[in-house]
Structures are given as structure tokens and as C-alpha cells.
Amino acid sequence: MAATDLPVQLGVVGAYLVVSVAVGALAYRLTSRDAEDYYLASRSLGTVVLLFTTFATLLSAFTFFGGPNLAYSAGPEWILVMGLMDGVLFAILWYLVGYRQWLIGRSRGYVTLGEMLGDRFGSKGLRALVAGVSLFWLFPYVMLQQMGAGEAIVGLTNGAVPYWAGAALITLFMIVYVVLAGLRGVAWTDTLQGVFMLSIVWAAVVWVVSAAGGLGSVSASMASTEPEFLALGGGLYSPQWMISSAVTIAFGVTMFPQINQRFFVAKDARVLKRSFALWPILVLLLFVPAFLLGSWAAGLGVSVPEGANVVPVLLNEYTPAWFAALVVAGAMAAMMSSSDSMLLSGSSYLTRDLYRPFVAPDATADREAWVARGGVAAFALLTFVASLFRPGTLVEVGDTAFGGFAQLTLPVMVALYWSNTTRAGMYAGIVGGQAFYLAHVFLPEVTVAGATVLGATYFTWDYALWGMLLSLVLTIGVSARTTAAVDEDADRFSVGLRAD
Question: What Pfam families does the record tag this protein with (predicted)?
Fold first, then answer.
């Protein structure tokens, strides 16, 4: 990289982020301070905006850098997991969970998942448990965006700008944006960023292929350099690993606060149904080119420095500096769109499910808003500090968060579909699944008499799946043996469903 390229690269990245914040400032002028408008854009989103705000909210460091990095090291079959299996699974879950939540939320005015479940079972404790678990697993996924931004800047500038500076930059912008925008501003910029990133990643594919001598040349180079990339199965990509990854990611995404809240915001049922029907197509349009870039980089012999990501390095080698910076700027803006949505939803969980019920039930709207802003800043700063220690690769950190959220999904689905679900059953399912999963994340592997008691897999299947199964069995089993404590609330909970 020429020394003259650095100002161009940083200028492009900075300009893109400033434009995103300007959109947030405009949205601030048009957003009221009441919770339904600030957190849910008054439940008024149409198909295009709902589809792209959900899409852009998931365009994270895991997508743009973690996935291509994995494809660079293990081959393009990751496309089958994220691009195909996970896209279809999440669309199904959007229907099964999201549509039902939308019906109930529209009828009862819920803003958060915790509100919905707390009201269903007449339990502030359950409401706090759901919020606490969600905020706990949100922490590593916000940290993932900061790690991705730091590594992107290192790769783009060949180390001229340090890792911490990139992580600090996105932290500053995400705090400013969330304080300003509300969901309306987030949705607007998400739509712009989603369209932009789809366009720019395909432009990157065309540019790299052209600069490398054409698709035939790139394919021949990969076949010669990494022949195992062209064979299905084996190595990392065993059927069990692929299925486990697709299931935990799809089920985990369903409980992400920033995704789950979007289940409440559709203008009408037609908007919701069109959105989840189009979802798998949109996912394929992004994941296929992104992961192909990672695989092609390996075939073309691109060397990735330690602490950098493959996509910026590949683009630096095969495209002009301004274009590489534009792609990275768009990726960072997409990471910011994930982070600001996470922090916005996290602040609603903090204030509505923890602060107001347990600390200040009579707090004014202004006071609640300031608590939310302070919580956003504190949460973002804590995740920034944690990101400096880089506790794993982007894929490892992301997988851990997905698995943690996935432990919530089946108890929530049981509550949505089975009227005999009880408060005790929900506590058992959520606490049991989380305890099992946390033990496997934080404790070392344990064997007794040659048998694995605490391990990464059981019968070749990932422990996250077994935790999900445990949460399901406990929720149903304990509910079957206990009596519903709030029959009246359970009946009111289903009013919105019967009306449709």
C-alpha cells in the first residue's frame, strides 16, 4: 500500500460513517420520545424497510469478516450453512415465532419479549430473567462488532492504524447514533446500508475476478492451490457440524433482542409475511459473494497478516485503494447498524424490564430516557474494553453468543403455542438450558472413567443442541407437573391470536 493511500482510505471510511450519523440526526427530529415510537417506530414499517432493517441488523462482523475468514481457512461450504440452511431456517422461525409475537404485541402493546412473557405468566422475575439472559449474551456480540472493526482497519491500512483505533472509532459512532436516532433512524440507515452492501459486495466480486484473469482462472487457481475446497464434506464441515451451526445460529438469531423486537414492528400481516418469504433470497445474495471472496483469496495465495481479516487484504491486492476503503467503510457501517440496533434494543430491555419494574416504577419518561442513554454508553464502553483482549476469533465469539441465545428459543415457542405452559416450567427451561450451556462454555472438558461428562460434543453433536433439547424437556416436563398460576393472564394473552 502506498503512503498516499492512507488518507484516502481513512477519508472514505470517515465520510461514510458521518453520513450515517447525519441520517440519525434527521431521524431524531422526526422521532417522538414515547417508547413505542423510539423503540418500535410506532409499529409502522413496510415490507422494504422491515426486510432491509432486519437484514442490515444481521450484517455484522460475523458476516463480513468472520465468515470469509472461515471460508479462507476451510473452504466455501460455509455458504451452505449461512447462505442456504440458516436463511431458510430463520425464515421458518420468523413465521412460527415472529408472526405470533406480532399478533400478541399488536393486541397488547408489548415493546420487549420480557414484557410479553412477564405479562403472560404474571411474573416480574421471569421478565427480569429473560432480559438479564439477553443482555448477558448481547455483550459478546456487541464486542464482536468492535473486534471486527479493529481488524478491518488493520487489514485495510496494513497495520498503519492500530487495532484499538478501529474498535474505538465504531464504539464512538454507535454511542452517538443510538442516543440520536431511535428505531426510525436505525431502520432508514439500515435500508440504505443493506442496498449499498449488496451492490458493493457484488462489485467487489466482479472486480476481483476481472483483476485475477477471469472466473476460469480463479477457479483453476483454487483447484490447484486448495483442491479440498472443491470437495463436499470432511474436515471441519462434517454433517453434524453444519447442521449444529445452522440450527444454533437460526434459533439464536430469533432471540437476539434487536431481531426479536422487529417481530413487533410490521405495519400489517401482509408486510410480515412478504418479509419472511423474501428473506432466504436476500441472504443468499449477500453470503454467496462474501464467502466466495474468502475462498478465492486462499486459492489466489493471498497472505493475511496476523490480526487482520481476509476481505480487506484481498481487496487491497486486487482493487484500487479507494474501492477497498469503500467496501470496508460499508462493512463498518453495517457493523454499526448491527451494534446500534443491539444497543437500542438492549436499552429497552434495561429500562423497561429491569429499571422501571424494580428500581423506579414511577420514573418519568425523561428520566427513563437518560437511564437508557447512560446504559448504552456504559455497555458500549465495557464491550470496547473487553474487545481489546480479543478472547477468540470472530467466528468463535459469534458462535458462543448464538448458542447462548438459542437456549431461550424453545421455551419461548412452547409458551407461544401451549396454553398449559406454567411459570415454573419457563423458569426450569430457561435456567436449566442456560446453566448447561454456560458450564460447557466456561468450564474445561471433564472425563470420568474414560467417559466424557463435560465435552464439546455428545454422540458427535454439539453441546449447544443438547442444551436446547434440555430446555425443551424441562419446560414441558415441569409445566406438565405444575399448575398454571395465572389462568386469567394466560387467557388474555391469547386474545390477539383468536382475533385473527
Answer: SSF
Instruction: Kindly state the greatest CA–CA separation across the chain.
Output: 71
Question: Which CATH number do you get for residue 202?
Answer: 1.20.1730.10
Domain assignment present for residue 471? The answer is no
Measured between alpha carbons, how far is 258 from 345 in angstroms, rounded to an integer? Answer: 5
Is 60 exceeded by the pLDDT of residue 175? yes
| Residues of the domain holding 200 | 4-393
- Closest by alpha carbon to 347, among 324, 328, 370? 370
Q: Is the pLDDT of residue 273 over 60?
A: yes
Residue 449 included in any domain: no
Q: What's the whole-model pTM score?
A: 0.85
User: Cell match 470496547: residue?
Assistant: 384
DSSP structural state of residue 447: E
Give alpha helix (H) positions in 226-320: 239-255, 257-260, 269-299, 310-318
To which residue does cell 498516499 refer?
4
Average pLDDT value over all residues in the chain: 81
Domain presence at residue 243? yes
Residue 84 in domain = yes
Percent of the chain past pLDDT 90, that is, above it, reads 25
